[in-house]
Amino acid sequence: MNEPILSISNLTTEFRVGGEWRDVIRNVDLDIHPRETVAVVGESGSGKSVTALSIMRLLGRNARLSGRILFEGQDLLALPEEDMQRIRGNRIGMIFQEPMTSLNPVLKIGEQITEVLIEHRGLDHAAAMAEAARLLEKVRIPSARQRLNEYPLSFSGGMRQRVVIAIALACEPKLLIADEPTTALDVTIQAQILELIKELQKEEEMAVLFITHDMGVVAEISDRTAVMYRGDVVETGTTEQIFKSPVHPYTRALLSAVPQLGSMNGQNLPLRFPIVDMATGSVEPVKPTVDTVRLDVPPALRVANLVTRFPVKKGILRRTVGNIHAVENVSFELREGETLSLVGESGCGKSTTGRSILRLTELTSGTVAIRDHDVARAGKRELAEIRRLAQMIFQDPFESLNPRIRIGDAIAEPIIAHGLMPRAEVGTRVPQLLEQVGLSPSMADRFPHEFSGGQRQRVCIARALALNPKVIVADESVSALDVSIKAQVINLMLDLQEQLGLGYLFISHDMAVVERISHRVAVMYMGEIVEIGPRQAVFENPQHDYTRKLMSAVPIADPTRRRVRHLSNDEIRTPYREAGFTPPPQKYREVDEGHFVLTQHLEPAA
């Protein structure tokens, strides 16, 4: 094999905290050869992103690095800052997890690409614009030349990540560092980005350092894998070796915790995840499932012909010229003790459906009934009662909690606001709620920043439970969590459903998690439900092309089953329609009992 293009030896990175130096990564050794993809995998806090930032020397002044990082024979740690600047973005490119942290929202895309080309390659403006258009075409952005004059916010998440890849490739780097570049993307867009990186690697003959916590992505893309745990590289090897014969307990734990699509075949009820001890790799027995669906009482939630549209206004007079048909004629019921999952890509209307149900977004027409309350017609007092009966858990728990309010007060706040009990008694209710979600009552005096992501989500669940709801709308409530924490939170939700008879509207794009947690599944596309039915029927006998597309895009955590995908630029088409547009009537075909598929629906705009 050729000499490594990057060779890391004995790398230790320390941060100065409270007057003391504390190591975050220790004695890391890692080689990457030309045209090779090496994955660094581990959960949040393992040190994988700090390793990437150490290579680029992008850490703050409170950081201290030791060891060696040889790139093309040069020790990056010994280079003057001026020389290091010539390497960054030139010989080494980097892609971050969130593209909007790399893109300036007030600069046109063309300006941001040409800036790199002028700085590092010395091109004049005209030549840089021509090269920028070529780069956008290379990353498969349609109408590339026209889109150079657009701003980042006019691009979807997947297209923004393509722009960031184009910028990273602008100077034809020999090493590309990709730090969680697909974590925030829908499963189909993730598949496109992974395939794009693989194709571009072949075309440009790059080495790729791919950082992720998703073992399915590792199996799809990497030649060799390094596993990190609490700042140490605990295992390295070829990806096939790591998956076939993991040696370290943490590697075995990571692999055991990955939800596998298809693992529920033959099961008709939700199933808790096995809880893996990440330090030892031991697996706790899975608690048996109990059928919690209440068929003896009326549905807790009824949605009939729900329509939510957003007007598009133009001109001085702000005349409505069209509408975004975000949710179009959606109907379903949810019973106590049942989980109905809404799945689909970003922009399909699933989150707007959840927000419309609680009237956090005003619905255009249709009816939503929670118990005997008509949500659309409810006045202020009745709407408060509705929001007691139906609560929402959002994706980012940190944004849901006031950083200046202790979590005990945050949990007590809705109880006091709704007058459910005297203030003097609230102090006894908060510890009960914390215990109910697996947290210690002594944590009530802490602030949100003192909790991990999984603990913060438990706090949000405790706050939602404070009002004794019958329905909880969980909007991507576990998508940002590491796989082991995700399993714990989902198991907690299933435990609470069993104890309290909660009905969950579970909004997600993670098909493997949806398969595990759901009683029924509704697949959304372009604002409409295109397929709905029992979870087992939808997953084992998908009828709609879009349902099959979602399932086929899920990464398989087995490198021996790595697939060659056809790279597609397809994304959710715009649901914009001109004013006065009348959607055609929906027609459903019943495949089996309770399993319906849409046969005539809103066509994408041209």
Q: Which features does this protein show?
A:
6-stranded mixed β-sheet, 8-stranded mixed β-sheet, 26% strand, 606 residues, 33% helix, alpha/beta
How would you describe this structure to a colleague?
With 606 residues, the chain is α/β, with parallel strands linked by helices. Helices cover 33% and strands 26% of the residues. It has 20 helices and 23 strands. The strands form four sheets. Strands 16-17-18-13-19-20-23-22 form an eight-stranded mixed sheet, sandwiched between helices. α3 (109-121) crosses α4 and α16 packs parallel to α17. The protein starts with 5 loop residues before the first strand and ends in a 6-residue tail after the last strand. The relative contact order is 0.11.
Task: Indicate the mean pLDDT.
Answer: 89
Number of helices: 20
Q: What is the strand arrangement across the widest sheet? A: 16-17-18-13-19-20-23-22
State the separation between the terminal residues, measured CA to CA: 51 Å
General shape: globular
Helix content class = 25-40%
Report on the biggest sheet.
8 strands, mixed
Q: Spans of 5+ residues with little confidence (pLDDT < 50)?
A: none
The proportion of strand residues reads 25-35%
Structural class determined from secondary elements: alpha/beta
Total count of strands: 23
- Rg is 25 Å
Map the helices and strands:
Blueprint: E1 6-17, E2 20-32, E3 37-41, H1 48-56, E4 63-71, E5 74-75, H2 81-87, E6 92-95, H3 109-121, H4 125-138, H5 144-147, H6 157-169, E7 175-179, H7 187-204, E8 207-212, H8 215-221, E9 224-229, E10 232-238, H9 239-244, H10 249-257, E11 301-314, E12 319-334, E13 339-343, H11 350-357, E14 365-370, E15 373-374, H12 380-389, E16 390-393, H13 397-400, H14 407-417, H15 423-436, H16 453-465, E17 471-475, H17 483-500, E18 503-508, H18 511-517, E19 520-525, E20 528-534, H19 535-540, H20 545-552, E21 576-578, E22 587-592, E23 595-600
